[in-house]
Amino acid sequence: MRITRTILLGSCLGLTVGCGPAPTPDNLPPVRSGGAYQAQYRDLSSDDERMLLSARMNAEGCRGAGGLSDGKYGGPPSGLGGERLSRGDLVDLRVEDDEIFNGDYVVSRDGTIKPPFLPAIPAQGRRPAEIEAALVRALLDGDFYDEAPRVSVRLADFASASVGVSGAVFEPHAVEIGAASAESRDSLRQAALGASTEARNLSAAIRAAGGIRPDADLSAVELHRAGSRHVLDLRGVFEGRRAEDVMLLSGDEVIVPSRQCFQDDLMRPGPLSPPGVSLFLSNLTQPATGNAVSAIGREVREMPWGTRFMQAVVDTNCVGGARATSAHRSAVLFTRDPVTGVSVVIERNIEQMLRRADRDDYDPFLLPGDSIACYDSSITNLAEVAGVVAAVGTATALTR
After folding, report:
1. Contact 204/178 with Cβ under 8 angstroms?
2. pLDDT by 10-residue block (mean), the chain, 400 residues
3. Distance CA 268, CA 266 (A)
4. Beta strand pairing status for 228-232 and 221-225?
5. Gly residues: which segments have biased composition (predicted)?
6. What DSSP state is assigned to residue 237?
7. Which of 110, 168, 191, 250 sits CB 3.0–4.6 Å from 256 for a disulfide?
8. What pLDDT score does 99 carry?
9. Where are the alpha helices (DSSP H) in the chain?
10. Cα(292)–Cα(219) distance, rounded to whole angstroms?
11. What residues does each domain of the chain span?
């Protein structure tokens, strides 16, 4: 009996000790001093003078913009604008009063159009007017006409394009853009001459690669096409300015450079931003008994791009409730530096964050794939310990 009581007392003391504050999570990056991917990750300061410094701290590590430095936004380089053909595009080709060459043609895998009795006509990356001129020359060189005939080359339908996207995007990989599903096809448009699409634009490719990271340099986005390198300035899309969204071709490669710093002004929805953030959640045991009753998805929850940590904490039912038992909760954010791939864990005392006037300075933006876990208050922990002690005491009494 004495041994059983000793074990019970030791168990109770051990459980009570477990109610003490947990140590601050350790990290390889210099998180506590503000040297991590976001300065908002750093530890809460106890200084009386409270100011919003995170945006300035983030900007201090920025490399210079690789594009124009005079504040002006450049248009697309010559050779990129307008309607250009790519492999797989459907073309309506007509030669006046000639049934031999009239018809629908698909730009072949080698990037050419192949009319009968004529050499293949290069089409990849060319405008319809350039193909018309090449077709007239081929007809004259082949002695089909003594004088230049009137010809027409019109795009009837755009094919999808396979392009590579790398650099400061969340999911760098080769993407397929511009493919239209059977449900989205319009029979009237299919029967009409001409074609139009926004699904093969540069912005669509960047979004398909997960969207830009907050460290992206939008002033110098590179487009590599047919051995040539073009530099595009896309900063205007986040400032309400009109930006030329060039159409991409199969075989293009897009590289988004990095400024090696976190840019707060890129954490807002835009044409190049991620569609949102998928969070992995783990909520409290008290007062909710599970995620389902708290209206939290079984695994993840979708949140808008630009959501902050404390907004997600509220969304996971970690804030509020009975003040006497629910105060002094804490929340943990598990994230990963998208540049280095190194994980970072930070913990915030929820009540302390709510009370601080400079709470925004320590409230990080959420990134795709982040995880959030909430811990109950010390009073709830003690109640749990009491329940365990009572259960152990009951079991001891039964063994007498």
Report:
1. yes
2. 49 48 82 91 79 91 72 62 89 91 94 95 94 96 94 91 96 88 53 71 94 94 93 84 82 96 93 87 59 54 90 83 70 93 93 89 94 72 44 51
3. 6
4. antiparallel
5. 65-82
6. G
7. 168
8. 87
9. 2-17, 54-60, 128-141, 187-191, 202-208, 309-315, 323-326, 350-355, 378-398
10. 45
11. 2-62+274-383, 90-157, 161-260
Q: Which two tokens stand for residue 187?
A: 């029979």
Amino acid at site 183 = E
CA distance 380 to 327: 9
Measured distance CA(169)–CA(155) in Å, rounded: 32
Cα–Cα distance between 38 and 48 in angstroms, integer?
23
Which residue shows structure tokens 């909520």? Answer: 283
Domain topology for 161-260? Outer membrane lipoprotein wza fold like (3.10.560)
* HSE (side-chain half, CA atoms, 13 Å) at 103: 10
Q: Indicate the SS3 state at residue 318.
A: coil
- Torsion angles phi and psi, residue 106, rounded to 5: -105, 135
pLDDT of 300 reads 62
Tokens standing for residue 200? 């093969």
